[in-house]
Amino acid sequence: MKNGNFDPEMLPLPSLDFQGLFPVGTVPFFTQNRRGVEVLLPREAEISEGYGSKRLSDFCTGRYCLRSCTNILGFSGEILIGDRGMPILPPGIVGTVSHSKVLSGAVAALANDFLSVGLDIESNGRINRDMWHLLFNDDESGFLNSLAADEQVLTATKYFSAKEAFYKMQYPLTGMYLDFHDVEMLPEQGDTLCVVLLNEAGPFEKGRRFEVNAKVAGNEIITFCALPK
Ligand SMILES: CC(C)(COP(=O)(O)OP(=O)(O)OC[C@H]1O[C@@H](n2cnc3c(N)ncnc32)[C@H](O)[C@@H]1OP(=O)(O)O)[C@@H](O)C(=O)NCCC(=O)NCCS
Q: What values do phi and psi take at 123, rounded to 5?
């Protein structure tokens, strides 16, 4: 299986290096180019009819990325929206989508290899201190407070993104909405982060740990959480 597919038209992002972000067996596809309704299949176009321009652009670009991944895995059909927003893929494939203002991406994999995958992209600095109480508990905030100012901003954004990537990975398996306080980030920085479940979630016991890979590409932070089979 190929491990890395990028839009041939993609502009170079400063320090773009996805090494170690996506495990072997996953198929990522990223682009900085926005796509329009021409990339949608008929039923995708139908469900997105009432969308505003930003949502529509995100949806089209996300579907373009996701289909570019699933094509490689042998599926080129429509990808509709399921429960609570998750993308609906055929039983043999798992996949995930994310968009920031400058970068969109998707990752897919065979369900024989991965139970689920979750991707998130955030622009660094999106999370300010006023939001910490909504996203982080006292231990997490205490760790962030111990960091120098620029590290604090970067790590807070990484932690937020890692929780969202974890959420997207877990939702298709548990069907559960999890709040930011249902999970905790261990006090780690760098490219491998660890999310701990503070409450039981479907088949996952309280205290279970999940790895989330993180990379900084220019001003964008990309996080990825995969559960191998
Ligand atoms: C759903 C959510 C994670 C999406 O993140 P976001 O930063 O707003 O948007 P992104 O561009 O990164 O991702 C959007 C994509 O997420 C996917 N998505 C939405 N809901 C999903 C779900 N329940 N499960 C899996 N993927 C989902 C969709 O593919 C969507 O793109 P699309 O609508 O074009 O198909 C976020 O809006 C949310 O509701 N978060 C609250 C729950 C949470 O994160 N808890 C953290 C602790 S576990």
A: -85, 135
Nearest ligand 1 atom to the CA of 180 is 47
Q: Is 35 in the pocket of ligand 1 (CB under 6 A)?
A: no
Enumerate the CATH 3.90.470 domain ranges in the chain, comma separated.
Answer: 5-120
Which residues lie closer than 8 Å to 177 by C-beta, 6 or more apart? Answer: 84, 171
Ligand 1 atom, smallest distance to 97 CA: 29
Residue 179 Cα to ligand 1 middle (Å): 12
**pTM for this prediction:** 0.95
CATH architecture of 5-120: Alpha-Beta Complex (3.90)
- CB of 38 closer than 8 Å to CB of 123: no
**pLDDT tens digits along 84-127:** 999 999 999 999 999 999 999 999 999 999 999 999 999 999 99
Query: Hey, how many other C-beta atoms are within 10 angstroms of the C-beta on 44?
Result: 18
Residues whose CB falls within 8 Å of the CB of residue 64, separated by 6 or more in sequence, listed in order: 31, 35, 39, 104
3-state SS of 189-207 is CCCEEEEEECCCECCECCC
